[in-house]
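Chain A, query sequence.
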Amino acid sequence: MAKDPNSNMICIAGREVLRLIKYTDHGFEDARNLRIGRTNLNYASVDVDWNPNDSNRFATAATNGNVVVWNAMMSGKNKKIELVISEHASRVNSISWNPFDGNRLLSGSTDSTIRLWDMRDKGSSSVLMNASVAVYDVKWNPNNPYIFASASYNGLVCVWDCRTQNIITTYSGHQRIAQTIDWGTHHSDYNFLASGGADGKIQIWDTGLSTERKPITSIQTIEHVGKIKWRPGCSGNIASSGSLMDTKIYVWDASKPYVPINSVSFHTDACTGIIWIDSDHMITCSKDGQVALHNLLEDGYSPYDSAPKNSLSWGAKGELAHIHNITGPRYEDDIVGIMTTFKPAEDQEIMWSDEDFTYLAKNYKFMDDTIENLCEHNSNVAKSRNKHKIAQFWKVLKLMYTEPEDSSDQFYQEYPEFPKEDYFEEEIGIEDDIVMVRQFNQAKRYLLLL
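Chain A, predicted structure.
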């Protein structure tokens, strides 16, 4: 899928489709179906790219190994075909028009070559560059008319200079096929080159660091990465899609690479094309035959914002660490993260009899109610067997995983005998709110250490 840089026209190309559509505020309009009634393999495509300087010209990489140049203004028996180039010995996987010179077209093929075509010579001459292995993607640098990148079967990502026809830099960051690449578009990302591979990784390279060969960021996705596209206007943001079973489109922040900041669910098969209209709108196409316009603000789901912010963990030496967020009216929109680590005192109460264990196992509840009610029920069950510290532990969970209007007030209502002096202080840098946080932490520390 490719968009005309100068209009709202989009070309959708595939093995069984080749058509032009327009997108509007109200949806899509069919402009021209170029595939209908045609069985010639020149109409079955693997890739498509629109000429950045000529709104009437685009090119496709056909499944038969040809590079086909189309002109939307032409008519006649062959309709829109302007030129067919048949120099590659095998399938062409990717094509890319030079963003500075609309007469130069790059193609990468499984025949292990990269060719640079000059349209002024009607494609009769080309610059041949040997990549040694099958090439899966090629992209011109949007800020340098002589530099381009390639992604190869052996997992290598290479940066080339077409003037010398040699590789400038080679990046080795994929353990399987490097399938897709994209250059950064934001002014602070101009030197960044992203690559996605069959190993499920998105690697981000800083090509401005001449001696550095390691990725500056590595994002692990859940399956083969089929397409990636930098998000315009948002530094470090990149969209990705899988090439096999995963039908979602994810948006990642390179500074927080472990959880996507947004995801869109619409397609029923793997997404094969991503185009950003602006920072909040994207168009996608899929193997399911559908094209969709997505509004991230309305259609997107944020796994990062929805992830739990509370956690407990035991250390190797018996330490217990817990982290939680404090929210409430006094904090307005601020969220304060608090982490405490300590070692609970040893107590014979943790020694359970078989009867105690069986009773608790049979009477604890873990579903079919709110977390608050489940914790309260389990606390009462533990109290009935004189397991007071276990009962208090369930109280801690209740405090951590529910959001009362004022946690400290609720605690003092349940434990009126507990003094209100400050036994535990933690400076968090928020004026006038420190006392509330002290009391909240003091309450939980009291429950666990009593």
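Confidence is low (pLDDT under 50) at residues 328-336, 421-450. Residues 53 and 105 are 12 Å apart (CA to CA).
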